[in-house]
Amino acid sequence: MEKRRVVVTGLGAVTPIGIGIDEFWNGLVSGKNGVDLITKFDTTNFDTKFGAEVRDFDPLKYLDKKSLKRLDPYAQYALVSAIMAVEDSGLNLEGVNKERFGVVFGSGIGGLKVLREQHFIYFESKTPKKISPYFIPMMISDIAAGQISIRFGLKGPNYATTSACATSSHAISDAFILIQRGSADLMISGGSETAVEVMSVGGFNAMRALSTWNDRYKEASRPFDKERNGFVLGEGAGSLVLEEYEHAKKRGARIYAEIGGVGLTGDAHHITAPAPGGEGAVRSMSEAIRDADVSVESIDYINAHGTSTPYNDINETMAIKTVFGKHAYELVVSSTKSMTGHLLGAAGAVEAIATLLAMKYSKIPPTINLTVPDPECDLNYSPNKPTDRKIRNAISNTFGFGGHNASILFKQLEA
Questions:
Q1: Tally of domains within the chain
Q2: Is 122 in the same domain as 143?
Q3: 206 and 297 co-located in one domain
Q4: Is the pLDDT of residue 415 over 90?
Q5: Alpha-carbon distance values, 171 to 20, 221, 266, 288 (Å)
């Protein structure tokens, strides 16, 4: 049986460099830096005092006050990004079979804020009777998918993915596969995270994963730069509307691109460090290219995982060289984490959106703060300014703690 084609028809984003697709894109191409001193808690005793927070977020533009009281911020971001994506898609929900419309939406951690708040309520009161009845349904990492489904009345496949930094790339991949195999015609997929929180900053500091450049925090997220010294935590959400091609064509939808293929692999190596030489990333990119049935020479852009950590950036560069050979020096690579910070479970969705917009506008976002070239990272990373380039095919990479690798290949639509 011939595989059904899957296209992207709607996008929504809540990010540290812009809320909404237009603001996000303007932030990307202008090299906007979303990193600043943390305002959400007192960082006096923390090794890292900065992050990429979402600023000027007004959920009341989309959600009522009663709903907000029952939603952790991660779920608020998720819902708002999904509402934006549905609006962007131009779908008439009254004319859609909602039993064929589903949701796969992930979070690496879930409701950290409500977990911290309810934890202190218990310890201060010394009684579990003070714990909110909404605590569990606000905290759990699947509730964003459930809330999106409820909001729109979507009765198709509905679940969450959790695979650290690869979470929302897995969500998009699953949604793609579900439509491809005929289990749905439409899916909302993506991820959300609000990890600029006490326990996550403290925890990542404990494992020495975060940059501690408190005196140079605007320069701290510097993927592929020789002076990189750890990643910068970010937060936000991204949502994509995926649609079966004929379904989209029939309603005259505006199509961003086609999902050509996905590559999903495991390192089976270490809980936090990537496999030597980026071996797992080699296989995920190779599988996405094979699945899409395109040549390596047809890939014009890679939105890299590019975390600004010593190991990831070298290993991802090595992986790209292994897969693409001489073409590795002809394509363009960039890391939008240089601007947004690392959004953990939301990274894959937000970076997929960045990739799709780059394809739409034929402009590759820059890797900012790349000022001291690392001899081991010697590809074209679009340093500090965007690159004008028509993009035929592009890959978005995400790799997570636990050895989870996901590569999504987007193709310009061919009729």
A1: 2
A2: yes
A3: no
A4: no
A5: 20, 26, 16, 15
